Structure formats: C-alpha cells, structure tokens
Amino acid sequence: xGTYPGSNxxxxxxxxxxxxxxxxxxxxTMDVFDPVMGNGCVTATESRxxxxxxxxxxNAAFALGIVQWILDNNAHNAEFLSYPSYQAAWDGGxxxxxxxxxxxxxxxxxxxxxxxxxxxxxxxxxxxxxxxxSKAVDQFVVIDASTNQPAVHTACTQGVLEYEGEVNGVAxxxxxxxxxxxxxxxxxxxxxxxxxxxxxTIENVAREFTSHGVKAAATTGFGGTALANGLTSxxxxxxxxxxxxxxxMVGGMMARRIGAKTTTDGARYLLSTVKGTPNxxxxxxxxxxxxxxxxxxxxxxxxxxAAGETDPKPRLPWINISSGSDNQALVSIVNQYPYQAKIVxxxxxxxxxxxxxxxxxxxxxxxxxxSVVPLHIACDAFIGEHAQVADxxxxxxxxxxxxxxxxxxGHWKGKGNTVRWPAKNPETIEISGGRHASYEAFLIxxxxxxxxxxxxxxxxxxxxGTLYPLHDACDYFLKGIxxxxxxxxxxxxxxxxxxxxxxxxQLPESWKAAVSAEEWPKVLNVLSRGGRFWxxxxxxxxxxxxxxxxxxxxxxxxEAKALNTNDYTGRNYNGTLRHEPETLIDQTLLSEKYxxxxxxxRSVNYKxxxxxxxxxxxxxxxxxxxxxxxxxxxxxDAVTFGVKDGDTIRIVNPTGDVMEGEAMVRAGVAKGTFxxxxxxxxxAYGAQDINIEGEQARPGDPAIGAGIHLQTMLDPxxxxxxxxxxxxxxxxxxxxxxxxxxxA
Length: 744
Description:
This protein is of the alpha/beta class. The protein is built from 21 helices and 26 strands.
C-alpha cells in the first residue's frame, strides 16, 4: 500500500527477490495499491501479482473499507483485542497489545473530556504503579469481561470490547467503538468512490488478509509517507496489524531492525557514555522544526497572552505529534521562526529536493542571504541543491570509502548487523595524520579544537575502565565492530589463511591500533563476513512469537492526537483512524478551495529505475538509458485533455508553479493522477557551473538537470514560504495536492 517490493529504498533488492521467489513458487500472491505502476515487482506477465490504481492520499479510506468488511464478518481477532495490557496479551499467546478496551471520557462537561479514563475519574482508590526507574506508570480503566465492573487495565485479564455507558457518573465508551464509528462513516460504495478501488476488490483483500490467522500482516510505514494526510496512512497499517493480532508474530509482522549493541554502550566499549558531558537536557528544548510541542506551551504564546492578546496565532504551525521533521526545520530556517538559525550544519542531505515545494527561487534566496543564515556548512560528497547554497562545503566520503554499522530494514526476521568498511582510499584531500577529509574527520577536528568531551585523548571508555583516544573514524567504528564481535557470545578468531586470502593483513595499522590485540582477530572475522548474523532459527520464540518482541501497543484511540488542536482553528484532531481528506494547514479542505472541476489532477512521485537523488544523477550511463523523466498521465485522461504521447504539456498548481515536459500516456497511472519520477529536474549535482571564490572550477552539464521536479503548491493559509504538508505530522505533500493540465 503506497509502495511495494523493489520500488522503495529499504533493502529493495533483497526484499524483492524473496517476494518474487515466493510468488513464483505459488506460496504467495501480491496485491499492490499504488497510484502508479512503477519499477519493482509489479508486472503484467505474473498472474499472482495484481496492481490496483488507488487514488493518491486515500490509503486510510481503503484500510477502513477493509476494517468495515472485517467487522461485518466478525473476522477480527476479538480475543487479542480484548487483552487490555501487554502482559495479558503475552500470557494469551500474543506479542503485542492494543488499547481497544480502554474507556474514553465522552462527557463534554468533564475536565478530562477526550482523555482515556484513569482510576481517579472512575472513583477508584488504587495504589500508584511505578516502572523500574521509579517513574509513575499510567493506569487506565476498562470494563472487566469477567465481572462487567470497572477495573484497572493491568489488573484484569480481558476487557469488554464494546461498552458505552457510565462509570462513576461519567459517560464513557471503549476505544474500539471509535474505530467502529469511523469504519462505518462511509458505505463500501463510498469507500470505492473515494479510493477508485472496486468494492469487490476491497472485500477480496479483506477476506484474504483475515484468512491466515496471525500469519498475515500489513507492514509499517516510514514517517508520514510524503502525503498531506500521511499520518493516517501510517496509522492505517498499524490498525490492520492489530485487527488480526499479527504484530511481532512469526509469519506475521515480525520484529525488525534487531541487532547487537554496537555504536552504543556495548560488550567491550561504552560508545554512548561520554565522560564530562554537561548536565543539560533537551526535554524542554524548543526544536527549530516546531515539533514535539504545542504552541500554547511556548514562551511566545504565554508572552503574547500576557501582553493582552486574546487568541494569538503563530507565524507557522506547531507540529505537536511529530518528534522531528527535516522539512519543517528547513521551513523554519527560511522564515526565521520560531528563532533564527545562526549556524546550519548539514550532512548528506538534500532537503530542498526532498521537500516538494521547497525547491523554488524565493527559498533559495533566503538560504543564500547571510542575514537569514549567517553561516551554513554543508558536508557532502556531491554539490547538490542543499550544498550549493552553503558558505562552506566539507568534502565527504562515499559508501565505498567509509565505515558503517547498521541493522536490517526488514528483509529477514533474524538478528544481525551489516558492516561497511572502506574498500578503497578516499578520493577526498589528505589531511593531518594521513587521514582524508570526511564528515567524521571534520567533527573530530572541530571538537578537539573546542575541547569538547568525548574527543581527543582519553575520549572512549572500555568496559574495564581503560580510556582510549578518538582522533579518526576508525577509532570509533572499529570499537563498534568489536562490540558486535563480542555481543552475547564472542565470535571465533579469524583463520590465518582467511586473512591472507582476503588481504586483511594489508589493512592500515591505525585500524589494528583502534582495538586490543585480543579483539583484532575477532574484529577481522566480522569484517571478512560483512557483518555478524545470528541463526535465523533463533528469531522463533515461544508460542509463535518473535524471540525479539518488545512491548508494543497499537492505539485504537490516541489521547495525544485527540487532545491536539489546530493552531488556527482551535479544533481538535481525531483520536482514532479516520479518512481525512487533504486540507490546508487551517483545515480548509483542498477540494472546497480548489474544486475538481478546475483542478482535476492529483500528483504521485515514485522512485525510478535510472535515477536517484544523488549518485546516479551524475552517471552518464544512466542518463543514456533515460535522459529525462516525463509527465505521465492515464490513457482516459489523455483523451479528455486532448493529449497524445510525446506532446509537450504543462501542469500547473494553484501557486502558479509550472511543470513543463514531455507527456507519457500509459495505463499504469491511476485516473485523475499524473506521475513524476523522482530525482530529475536538478539545479545542482553538476548541472550548474561550479564557482569557488569567484572563479569557475568546473562548467556545468545541463544534461544532469534534465527533466521535471515535482513542485507542490505553497499553503495560502499561512503568510510565509510554507509548502503544503500534513497538518498533524508535517510530512511533505509530494503525492496528492491539486493541479490542472495545459497544452504548451
């Protein structure tokens, strides 16, 4: 839903191979719901894979159609949903829980209206519970299924799933009923009309999805899924898992990203504990991205109220639900709100390219202006759109020249870490100590000059208390690899013949010096194998649960969302999954402000075969294969608009931004949608002339910048440079929006 094996950047080759192998063997079928049939596993030649052209930004509606069918047919796992706590669910044979049975206060006169009921609200005198760190633990009220009386959620085995009434004179209803109301807010025919997916298809998928017990799952999404209502898409996937109880179950949604403690406090080195760290906290920090805090909790709000304002509005919205947002940090920097960014240090990012709507001249002008950004240092291997507006560019290494230790992105269910180490000498300039310029070297050198703790001599502590220096990347990463080598049970020493066979005896002496003589043969064992991977059988826990399961709860009702209010309207957001059509930041429906009769198209961005945001943009071979991207439109839409394949057309958004390019008429795009392959239309990466200190260092190649960059509108309800985003999560609206088409 929204992506599929082979089309995204998460271990796409490995995941695609495993999926296609299972499909080919007849062990699986695949239904892909995506507005565009891009690269990946979808092909018309495979009968077990079906592509369904869903309309952009309607994933939640599709999921709720599935939920409605599940409820109509009692296909949900009622036993799992009745467990009110993680411990109760675990004792019942599951590896996660939900808050479906928790009672929500619906009495508008109650001071805790919209909150989940606590024992005090129910008139219950119960002792406070504390966690292992002596912090108070939330206690919620449910109706105990065995007594039909109120109980603390951790003190009963099963709760009543559907209850609506009064407790202690307070009107309440279960979280499950909120989702049920939401699912029946529209008929199946209406869900079909919203999504463009036939009712029969929704029903067939729901039937298939619920026919395998907990051995079927919807995968989790990443971030806000680049939609202006993206939070609902992620929530939808979580709810589908919960309806069948598949989270962290073998054959279902297995626990992933499971690895050893490497670049943290591990078996041999304490890489998270820094001696002399200042006693400061970010708990009450105001992020420049305006996330993780309500506007009403800011000093600005309090000061303006104290000055006499009755209902102050912020210059830019505050995104309370999200913990961080790179695109919103960019918007804040440009608008100098909530404060000015005096120094911007960026590494390996191109937020301008990734934030649809940000790659426009007014924003570039702001970033170039030293009165807006006094100092910008970019560290990158390429001069992309973001780096080209920096004051200084620190050369960085590419993956073949650098270290890395990472967990897996879900293409297998076991525990392990892959290890990346330099396969060649870096192409960057050589600096002191025989090192080469890189992000790590830059940070270390700056830190040493500033006498920051955790760098220089006696910077890293071993588990035995011995102190070690940190002067280079190898001082850090080789210790992380040693932690991996010694996790749980130490690996064997590498065989001497293997050292010679792989030329590991030619590795730099500085690497060997970064760890102890005892550790080095074990570190070489891990390096030689590209990581360390535990037997996959160890991932199978007791009772069909993942051996790596962690406490996990799916929220049928989110108190944080329900109490969150829009900064401009004051209206609360919904606490449960609901189909939320795209809106401006002030909750004005896009469809009302920009009627479909005038703005009939929606966008979809996808990752192409022949271009990425950075490295492949510079490859002549890739440019020879596909020199530019297209404005891709559905065959029926082409007839409606009088467009033929190969025509030069213009697609315009309400801000007046124009995308002009070659039309590609194809069946693999949803009706009412146009598709744009991501990573084209560059202004940098070598497309521009490179000037250093006023002199041309290299002429640009316009072929690198060929094609179209998807341009999202600016939000007219915000008096600032503010591209369209999800009002709750701040995710950029790369897919969806409103557009119209013109012949050039």
